[in-house]
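Quick question, first post here. What does this chain look like in 3D?
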Amino acid sequence: MPVEIDVRIKEIIQRNYNVKSFRMEIVDWLDFKAGQFLLVTLQGDPKLKRYLSISSSPTEKCYLEFTKKLTQSDFSMALSNLKAGDRVSIQYPLGKFILDESAPKVAFLSGGIGITPIRSICKYAVDKNLGVDIVLVYSNRSVRDIVFKDDLSAMSKSYPFLRVAHVLYEAEQGFKCTVGRIDANVIKNEIPDYQQRKFYLCGPPLMVEAMRKILADELGLSAEKIVTENFQGY
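> Answer (accepted):
Ran it through. Tokens below.
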């Protein structure tokens, strides 16, 4: 069952120009599964709350982390003013966007800040050396928009069963990527054995629905092979 607790912000990490990670000090550790989310409330104000994915892995026991794209919303503005030592209220664990460890091969299709639960799952698979074969196809506008770029690169180097393929609208010289957006051809090229994989989709609702339709209508995958998570309310 989820619990609600007040926690102290331990560290704040700038991931890129508009994304920050907030690491919280957890005294009484509550087990959660990689890919789950939490409810964050700021200043005890019910108007300042958001559901946010946990971006850390259950294997990272010294903190609990969520990662947020900062916009001009009231919540983002309050969040951006936080500093180490401040306190927030969280309720966790929530959600069912969880890796099926019995599936020998999986694929993730993600865009932007939708990478947060996927980072948690990938880190868990790497740390546990699960042996699950993972392909991540990650879409962004440009290199500077990629969240966890170095983290994902390090994991793919240390875990031979993880491959990360970037898809960008704007290419950058020297950076390996596919230019454009994720479509059926990109999926076929990057994941030629797509019919053997279980797919996890995470990102803005319109993107997730578009990816689901491509997998189901164009590539013929059954609903049982498609798991979705939508990111609302940036």
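The chain has a mean pLDDT of 95.
The CA atoms of residues 210 and 231 lie 14 Å apart.
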